[in-house]
């Protein structure tokens, strides 16, 4: 835990190369580093009883990453699984399908009407050796994939390097917290996230993520105890972030918390101002 007392860091990974991270699972990290993506998007090549699946092909802009995926498909490539529609995860899926003929599977509530998937996935459905978990919150269509041996592909729902942004209207804080509780109740052994390193013994970490959300919520309510205020001002008070990109992400999280609190009748909205109910 070098990034902070809560999160995990790793050295910059090799690009366009497969690295085994668990039995039958290889990771390729896209060259799209950033303040919201860490070193880049993790693409996983997963061997199953039906053949090799690609989970999250990554951004379409990184042609070297796409070439590395194709080079490492092996002799029995079977399909492409997408955790959610954000471009750093889904972007290369149409091109990979075009180049390989592999079918693309997405959530049934995948919001991009311009893309026609080859199959849609429901919560609790099995595909090959993986159980589909619909985990909305970070994105309405977010999916995790669970293997019987305790490996869970957690996408952006739970990342090891940082907490996830929850940005309305597609992001929903009530759903996000509920799905954190759902994963906490499971007995998965390791998480393979959409960004950052492998997360072992994940339940205590997931509990800390949930506690952090609850703490932020309490801070928002405390800020509104004696005044009404805007999302921007609340975020500045609660998060105290000077970097403009991080400050903007904090504002989106505050907006999501306020929508959750509004649904629970703990706050009311008056134009751009919010106050305790």
UniProtKB/TrEMBL annotation:
InterPro entries recorded: LACTB2_WH, Metallo-B-lactamas, RibonucZ/Hydroxyglut_hydro, Sec-metab_biosynth-thioest, WH-like_DNA-bd_sf
MF GO annotations: hydrolase activity
Organism ancestry: Bacteria, Pseudomonadati, Pseudomonadota, Alphaproteobacteria, Rhodobacterales
UniProtKB keywords: Hydrolase
Residue stretches making up the Metallo-beta-lactamase domain: 40-195
Keyword Iron annotated: no
Protein name: Glyoxylase-like metal-dependent hydrolase (Beta-lactamase superfamily II)
């Amino acid at each position: 835990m070098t990034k902070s007392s809560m999160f995990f860091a790793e050295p910059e990974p090799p690009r366009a190369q497969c690295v085994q991270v668990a039995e039958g699972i290889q990771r390729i990290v896209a060259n799209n580093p950033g303040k919201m993506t860490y070193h880049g998007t993790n693409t996983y090549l997963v061997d199953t009883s039906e053949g090799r699946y690609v989970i999250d092909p990554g951004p379409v802009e990184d042609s070297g990453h796409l070439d590395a995926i194709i080079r490492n498909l092996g002799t029995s490539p079977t399909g492409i699984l997408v955790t959610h529609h954000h471009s750093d995860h889904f972007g290369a899926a149409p091109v990979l399908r075009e180049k390989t003929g592999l079918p693309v599977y997405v959530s049934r509530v995948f919001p991009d009407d311009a893309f026609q998937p080859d199959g849609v996935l429901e919560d609790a459905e099995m595909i090959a050796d993986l159980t589909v978990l619909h985990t909305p919150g970070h994105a309405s269509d977010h999916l995790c994939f669970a293997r019987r041996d305790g490996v869970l592909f957690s996408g952006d729902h739970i990342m090891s390097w940082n907490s996830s942004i929850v940005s309305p209207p597609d992001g929903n804080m009530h759903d996000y917290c509920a799905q954190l509780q759902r994963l906490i109740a499971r007995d998965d052994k390791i998480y393979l996230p959409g960004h950052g390193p492998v997360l072992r013994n994940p339940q205590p970490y997931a509990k800390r993520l949930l506690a952090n959300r609850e703490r932020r919520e309490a801070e928002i309510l405390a800020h509104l105890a004696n005044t009404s205020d805007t999302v921007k001002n609340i975020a500045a008070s609660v998060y105290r972030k000077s970097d403009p990109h991080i400050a903007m992400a904090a504002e989106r999280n505050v907006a999501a918390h306020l929508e959750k609190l509004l649904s629970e009748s703990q706050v009311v909205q008056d134009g751009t101002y919010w106050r305790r109910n």
